[in-house]
């Protein structure tokens, strides 16, 4: 694969006295749509961290929450990007793993926030990609390669949205962490190529669901950007020694968090409903377990999504959760559930380290040095 070719594996270098971090949680309240919704049930408090839920009697607050930041209905895509995503992209450019997950019920604004390509409302994925390339352009001191993958998870099957014929990819693990085996990793040189792949993936996603007569809000979509950053430290040609940092950015549009009804109208069989929900249910269980200092077992292995996001949930990654909420009174119960999910996620500690290794050329050079050393010893 793109990231592991020709490179000597080294243990990741932990920065020694880095303070432990946790998952950062941001809530975005989408403006109420005109038709048949009563807005005002969720209101941001002044000071930008607090949020109040109003029930039935519009002036009596029912519950209050506090998050890393609450972005109200008038917040722009740029506001969301600067609060929740930009710091992660900057870390990815320095060799950290980073994750942005969007959680919330269908219609709450996950896909709008992540994937919108409307000129006046560009979403987090295109913004993150654009930032990566503008950084690369300005950094003359490093060589960069960027690879993009795009998959979806539906009913515990991983489908490659850039190569839709690959519809049952498996999660694998090596010293470098967890990855999707055999996934297409397309090298991208600029934002135009990224946007092209995004729209290709989105089209494939829609096609897949139309064929299944299902709705894509039931699937998880994951865009992965791998940034490889090289710096020559000495030598030239064969003897050149390079330090290589690898940052992986996951941008995850989670399936709708609303409970699935096994009613006749949805036409779902019980096992189907269970399978559709499995990854999201397991995500909740993993977050609960990770948030509880006494929990002995975290069930990462119980679903594909949680295996893939294992690092993002308390391993080697910096993670932001964007809870998408709508302020409609009709959806207050689902919104409360989403906010509670967000609160638990705030207790998940992460421990990100720079993924740095020394390229093959170094190993080569070190081997020669070691052999020469041995020669010298044996000739003594
Ligand atoms: P989800 O992906 O969570 O199911 P969508 O992102 O598709 O929800 O949003 C549902 C609808 O609401 C879409 O028509 C979208 O354009 C609109 N929408 C969502 N968030 C906002 C926002 N912050 N501002 C304006 N329109 C929004
Ligand atoms: Mg969506």
From TrEMBL:
ATP binds at residues 104-111. This is Kinesin motor domain-containing protein. One of its GO terms (biological process) is microtubule-based movement. Belongs to the TRAFAC class myosin-kinesin ATPase superfamily. Kinesin family. The keyword Coiled coil applies. It comes from the Eukaryota. It comes from Chlorella vulgaris. One of its GO terms (molecular function) is microtubule binding. The keyword Metal-binding does not apply. The chain holds residues 33 to 412 of 1025 of the full protein. The lineage of its organism: Eukaryota, Viridiplantae, Chlorophyta, core chlorophytes, Trebouxiophyceae. Residues 22-348 form the Kinesin motor domain. GO terms for cellular component: microtubule. Keywords: ATP-binding, Coiled coil, Microtubule, Motor protein, Nucleotide-binding.
